[in-house]
Design brief:
Blueprint (H helix, E strand, L loop, with lengths): L2 H13 L4 H32 L3 H17 L1 H10 L2 H20 L4 H15 L1 H13 L4 H29 L2 H6 L2 H14 L16 H6 L1 H4 L2 H30 L5 H29 L1 H18 L6 H12 L4 H10 L7 H16 L2 H10 L3 H20 L10
Helix pairs in contact: 2-8, 2-10, 2-13, 3-6, 3-18, 3-19, 4-7, 4-18, 5-6, 5-7, 5-10, 7-18, 8-14, 8-17, 13-14, 13-18, 13-19, 13-20, 14-15, 14-16, 14-17, 15-16, 15-17, 15-20
Organism: Natrarchaeobius chitinivorans
Pfam family, one: MFS_1
Keywords: Cell membrane, Membrane, Transmembrane, Transmembrane helix
Length: 406
Amino acid sequence: MDVGDTLKREVRALWADGTGLALGAVATTWGLLIGTRMILPVVLPSIQETFDLSLTVAGLLVTILWLGGAIGQLPGGMLADKYDERTLMATSAVVVGVALVAFVFAPSAVVLFGAAAVWGLAHSLYPIARITLLSNLYPDRLGSALGVTMATGDVGQTALPPLGAVLAGAIAWQAGLGFVIPLLVAFGVLILMFVPKTSSPDDDNGSGRSLEGVRAVVPALSTPSMGFITLILFLYIFIWQSFTAFYPTYLITVKGIQPAIASALFGLFFAVGVVVKPIAGGAYDRIGIRGSLVGVLAAPVGGFFLLPFVDELWALALITALVSTMLGSGAITQSYLAESFPEELRGTGLGVVRTVTATVGAGGPLVFGAIGDYGYFDEGYWALAAIMAVIVLLTLAMPTTSAARN
């Protein structure tokens, strides 16, 4: 099947019902939010120098950002069940912009870490509201809609880190992050303009924002398939956050790559995801979770294992591309989760799973930073390869009985 024809067909279908502007606003803002978060690893060496941070403490800074984004996902999901998703998404974009003002002008490490926590909490309002909105707009093409949205996120992650690196090198690391602040505010406004209102406080009995809403999703959470997907998500998040937090630093300090080239390789990691994610989402729609998830996670096992052995730029680019196929897993796992909960409790269910997995997985940068401080970066990547292999085996062993596709 021709990849170009597949992508064109999916884009036409997603635009067909007049929802294209809403999808564009949601996806572009997501690209800004997640792309901004990926500027942090690129400027992290400069932040280390400014505040005299070790690799371990720098990893803690990234962990706090991710932890804030994890803790807020449950209340964010509950709010998405009860209130208008577009308001939550717009609020997320604007408050992240405000937090970045405090981050780039932080006079001390304490303020820096506090701003990172607020940044993460504000970011956490967006992901689940985005999923529940798209599940309403595209009930028959959720995998494709999420794939396109996540691919747009990868456009942001591809373009913004290198741009941030250029500005950081030419001016200061603060400029490398600060340039996105007005963009976040502007796109927060565009969401209010183009995204339709899909829910209101009168649409349900309030279960989504109460503890009863959490208790109501327990039966779905207690199934064997949900146990497998939760463990898979935790391990994947641990790997992804560990890798993205320190890959530019690893390339610069261990491989001897120039910062600009390291940021370009980091951008390549996300650039491949622009193509992989829509294809992965479409594959989930057609063949289910097992085949599609194994298909995107097999190559990173080899990529992580081989990374310490290569030094040539072309080989590092090839390894980066191999590892980046794992980015397609988001469109698959999030679609599977969204289809595993009743519509009225979808946000709460997603919030419970994402909060639990992301909170535990947020420790990855701290652990990986400590490994780097002790001089075991290479061994750390071999450990990531082993964990990814475990994820592939867990996917193959998933029970076939579930409310979602298998």
